[in-house]
Amino acid sequence: MFVVVGIAVVVGAVLGGYLMEHGNVSLLIQPSEILIIFGAALGGFVIASPLKVIKAVQAGLLRMFKSRVFSRKDYLDALVLLSDVFYKIRKEGLVSIESDLDEPEKSPIFKSHQSFIKNHHALAFLTDTLRTLTITDIEAHEMGDLLDYEIDAHYEEAMIPAKSIANVADSLPGLGIVAAVLGVVLTMKQINSPPVVLGHDIGAALVGTFTGVLMCYGFVGPVAKNLENIANEDKEFLTVIKAALLAFMNTPSPQVAIEFARRVVPGELRPSFLELENLVKKARAK
Hints:
- By secondary structure, the chain is mainly α.
- It has one domain.
- Helices cover about 80% and strands about 0% of the residues.
- Helix 7 (about 120-135) runs parallel beside helix 10.
- The mean pLDDT is about 90.
């Protein structure tokens, strides 16, 4: 929603200012220059990007149009799920959750937390870590290092769409100059034409530079930053899960582990202590 609002503001501000100076909007519509700029940008993107990167960019662009990647409800759902898992482990032991980890979609614990199950990265991050704990005796600091490596690897992968779009944004001003130069070349063929004709052609050529710069700083560059923010939110979510797991390994108390995780939740999304405690009690009472 905010992406659409931002696009509308950019378009409205640029065109509004242009029209205030009695500009002719039809002069800004130059199909040949648009073809040169965006065709070259798309071609460069395809040259630089393997198929998996192209698919990652497509998926990232779809996620970008959501109001938030993670909401307060998503964090609450994750914290309550972690609490349920930790209480079962403390009561019945690590072996008791093996069936839950093998098929979380069918697990009585996991299936009541659908928003978490739909987050495949977070689900795999949690289940793989718990599965590791069931098959090996690993120290908390070693597990912390392992989780850091996994989070960093996921973050680098999640940053691929942002970096790819940023490269496209960086190329647009240069491609706008290419389009403008080609327009000037064509204008030079008509050097003997009246000044009115030459002025029109030169103005049309300069539209290429305008288009490239505007698309870079007004649209494509901000899209790259938005995708970077999405990657950062993914990292923050995994970090909350990591905090809970390490706290539970150090002090096998579900309450303490969940409080550690709650404190790591980003400030504007962090539930209060009492709010989380009440949800945990309701979940345990079912």
